[in-house]
Write a structure and sequence with these properties.
This protein is mainly β. It has one domain: monomeric porin ompg (Porin, Beta Barrel). It is built from two helices and 15 strands. It has helices at about 1-20, 280-295, and strands spanning about 30, 40, 60, 65-80, 80-95, 100-115, 120-140, 145-155, 160-175, 180-195, 215-230, 235-245, 250-260, 265-280, 305-315. A twelve-stranded antiparallel β-barrel has the order 4-5-6-7-8-9-10-11-12-13-14-15. It has a two-stranded parallel ribbon with strand order 1-3. A hairpin with a 2-residue loop joins strand 7 and strand 8 (about 145-155). The radius of gyration is 22 Å and the shape is globular. The protein starts with a helix and ends with a strand.
Length: about 325
């Protein structure tokens, strides 16, 4: 899976300049190569966060290949009878040539949980790696055609060994002011999922029978909101809903709320809250086993299909 992720990343870097040559350009008068020298630029002369904007909303469309990179790290912990320690790293690369934008993201996190009850210590580790690649082609100042994929490996929180989503659709901005922006995306795709039937870290899962791989067509809906409160403080919210078309009772919903403190153009601090819900065939199988054990008189609980997390971190931008 890791080799696949590296392959996706290299593929995106190779494909972008090739596709950009074929991408439609604005009138030559609207393409300004004097703003930046050379074939590549970070777009600082534009004076705006161009990677967040539809290129057709810019006063000029720069001729060089634009790039922007963000690296972030977040951390949280809790103590008591149950101790948790969470680390997450995110790397994001934006590339743009004329009207075509590439968004490449890689995420990795690790959470270690230690339970200390009556002298017994139970330790288990949750890990996840994720890769996202999306291409966006602007067709109007408020509409883009999108296509991409995302791959997840070892998402033990949701009992997933690996998952790949392929999708295509449209995206746009509904509200765009100097202080507020509201946008969204709708896409159709294919989801392929394999579950962690082996090497599970939670003892409760040892007796769960293997769960078959699950593939389905999906509909994906995203919404994002940004609010520039002051020059230094901003608020953002992101919602992502995916539903399997084959069995609509299997769906997932992610909500991320973030408060940012922009200390400079290159450095910021943030506080982030995440809500993650998913109902899938593995969750259903675990609950069926627990219900059967409860019917036999055992004192067992219920599986929780929702996870939440509060963390804080730093972001470097260049």
């Amino acid at each position: 899976m890791k080799k696949q992720q590296v392959g996706y990343f290299l593929f995106s870097l190779i494909l972008l300049p090739v596709v950009a040559v074929a991408a439609p350009k604005e009138r030559q008068a609207d393409i300004d190569s004097s703003q930046d020298d050379g074939w590549i630029s970070n777009g600082a002369s534009l004076g705006v966060s161009w990677w967040k904007m539809n290129p057709k909303k810019l006063d000029v469309i720069p001729d060089p290949l634009l790039y922007h990179t963000e690296l972030s790290y977040s951390y949280s912990d809790s103590s008591g009878n149950t101790e948790n320690e969470f680390h997450e790293g995110i790397g994001q690369l934006f590339l743009r040539k004329n009207l075509l934008t590439s968004d490449t993201t890689f995420k990795v996190y690790k959470m270690e949980t230690v339970m200390s009850l009556e002298g017994d210590i139970t330790r288990f580790i949750e890990e996840k790696q994720a890769f996202f690649q999306e291409f966006r082609l602007a067709v109007s100042p408020s509409l883009e055609v999108i296509a991409g994929l995302n791959a997840v490996e070892n998402n033990s929180l949701k009992f997933i060994d690996h998952r790949i989503n392929y999708y295509a659709g449209i995206g746009g901005t509904f509200v765009d002011t100097p202080s507020f922006s509201l946008g969204g995306k709708v896409a159709y795709g294919l989801r392929e999922t394999s579950y962690i039937n082996e090497n599970v870290s939670r003892p409760i899962l040892y007796s769960i029978p293997p769960v078959d791989d699950y593939d389905s067509d999906i509909i994906s809906i995203q919404a994002d909101f940004d609010w520039k409160i002051t020059e230094m403080v901003s608020f953002s919210e992101f919602a992502w809903y995916r539903v399997n078309l084959e069995d609509t009772e299997y769906y997932s919903l992610d909500l991320t709320t973030q408060l940012n403190f922009n200390l400079s153009d290159y450095f910021s601090l943030f506080i982030k809250h995440e809500f993650m819900f998913e109902n899938n065939t593995f969750v259903e199988s675990v609950q069926d086993v627990l219900d059967a054990r409860r019917a036999q008189g055992e004192n067992v609980g219920a599986i929780d299909d929702t996870d939440t997390r509060l963390s804080m971190g730093i972001t470097l931008k260049f």
